[in-house]
Design a protein that fits this description.
The protein is α/β, with parallel strands linked by helices. The chain is built from 16 helices and ten strands. The strands form two sheets. A six-stranded parallel sheet has the order 7-6-5-8-9-10. Strands 2-3-1-4 form a four-stranded antiparallel sheet, with helices on both faces.
């Protein structure tokens, strides 16, 4: 009869009694079953029209409270919300890898499943990490390579971190995402000759007016996007810039940068007709330019045309206003047509960027696996050291007094034995850290050495907390 093949050192075998009905492995420690308990849900410029996105937009003033509401829901350990003109995304770290994020969106924005769900996309675990990396690197943007999205993600991260809804798990995810975005921008040309929503808006203005020389511009809303638009317009020869903002001091600050004129927001409608081009991005919850305003502007301008670029979500310009002869109004979705001309030029660089993200994703996953095995390695070392010390103390009374040389010999002998015992499980853990079987190996090692739920003293607990940090630092 043929003998069964011998097991090699480090082989892991499972007995049938370790499996439940259906053959699934029964793990005592479910926390090691999934190291990427990330769950993301959202809408963007591809999945939802502007009419839907503007109903989900969260102003900066409400973002912190929305993050608190998110993490108060069952099963959500950490969470943050990214809200821009082109996307609203909820990113979480959950108790078991999934949570009712659709329910959160339904309640937060008072939308029915019928109205919202067809436009949603969801990613979990590794797919969620990949999506975050792509968003931060501007590969998922309307304008691939635009620089604004990274700053917007950083602001959302800072807000969530300030209210305590981002802690260790999302912190390590987004810290890595920012590093990946930096690498993409430095190692590829995906951001070269960078275009943004604001610069595309300027291109549309040039198509309507031909030249921007001598044109007057009104910037409504003194945010970063408005400032970027102002820089592009002045670079293309605009004669003067007016700036209106609900906070008058901010309007003055932006106007001074371009030798423009600040207008009080209450005087907006009396002065807006002085401009040929209006770029508006206020973040107001409702439209601020309606059909009646357009009719007044055209009458005062003797029907000379006006061009409105509405880069706000929710929209600042009512759709009915664009129906007036002499009023040209473009919203954020209309910019997609102008963006398409840039896509072909960046296709090759985007492929290089995708390759970087793929490698960084594997690296991030391996790092999480390694951090997962470090506490088990430390526990094993503590456990065997405790046994070694206990055995030395037990036989010391029988051996009588030992010379220093004998003490050193006993110490060396017992440590050598312990190191040999530890070698195979530690090697197996480190090898398995980057494999799919990592969680199984971790659980088996903890079972074999009875490491489950062992109470540790303060020194051991501190060592456990310090070990993952040192392990992570060693991989940089």
């Amino acid at each position: 009869m043929a003998r069964p093949p011998r097991r090699r050192a480090g082989d892991v075998r499972l007995r049938d009694r370790d499996r439940g009905l259906g053959g699934e492995l029964l793990l005592d420690h479910p926390q090691v079953c999934c190291i990427m308990r990330y769950h993301l849900i959202g809408v963007n410029h591809r999945s939802a029209p502007l009419e839907v996105r503007e109903r989900l937009a969260i102003p900066d003033s409400r973002l912190a409270d929305a993050c608190r509401d998110l993490t108060a829901r069952p099963g959500i350990e950490e969470g943050m919300i990214i809200s821009t003109c082109n996307r609203v995304e909820v990113v979480t770290h959950t108790t078991n890898g999934s949570a009712d994020l659709r329910g959160f969106l339904h309640e937060q924005f008072h939308l029915t499943a019928e109205d919202l769900d067809p436009h949603l996309y969801e990613f979990r675990e590794k797919d969620a990490v990949r999506h975050v990396f792509r968003v931060a690197s501007s590969l998922d943007s309307m304008v691939v390579g635009e620089a604004q999205i990274l700053g917007q993600v950083k602001e959302a991260y800072a807000t969530a971190r300030a209210v305590g809804s981002v802690r260790s798990q999302l912190d390590q995810l987004f810290t890595r995402a920012f590093a990946v975005a930096k690498r993409v921008r430095s190692e590829t040309a995906v951001g070269s000759s960078s275009v943004s929503v604001a610069s595309v808006a300027v291109e549309l203005a040039k198509k309507i007016f031909g030249s921007l020389q001598g044109k007057n511009v009104f910037i409504v809303g003194a945010g970063k996007m408005s400032e970027l638009a102002a820089r592009h317009l002045m670079a293309h020869g605009c004669a003067s810039i007016f700036v209106a903002n609900r906070t008058y001091d901010r309007a003055i600050g932006l106007a001074e940068k371009f030798n423009g004129q600040a207008i009080k927001f209450d005087d907006l409608y009396e002065n807006c007709d002085r401009a040929d081009i209006v770029i508006t991005s206020t973040g107001a919850p409702h439209t601020i330019f309606r059909r009646e305003h357009g009719e007044q502007f055209l009458a005062r301008r003797k029907n000379r045309p006006m061009f409105f670029i509405d880069i706000a979500v929710p929209r600042d310009v009512a759709p009915e206003m664009a129906k007036l002869d002499g009023i040209f109004a473009y919203d954020i979705d209309d910019l997609q047509q102008a963006v398409s001309s840039h896509v072909a030029d960046r296709h090759h660089e985007a492929e290089l960027a995708e390759a970087i993200i793929a490698s960084e994703l594997e690296r991030f996953e391996a790092r999480l696996h390694t951090r997962d095995v470090v506490p088990t390695i430390v526990s094993l070392q503590d456990h065997l050291e405790t046994i070694r010390q206990a055995e030395i103390d037990r036989v010391r009374s029988r051996m009588g007094p030992l010379t220093p040389e004998q003490e050193m010999a006993v110490e060396a002998l017992t440590r050598g034995i312990i190191n040999k015992v530890m070698h195979t499980p530690i090697t197996t853990l480190k090898t398995a850290a980057r494999e799919a079987e990592a969680t199984t190996v971790i659980d088996l090692v903890r079972r074999l050495f009875n490491l489950h739920d062992k109470e540790k003293g303060p020194a051991s607990q501190a060592k456990d907390k310090e070990a993952p940090r040192k392990e992570a630092e060693s991989q940089h």
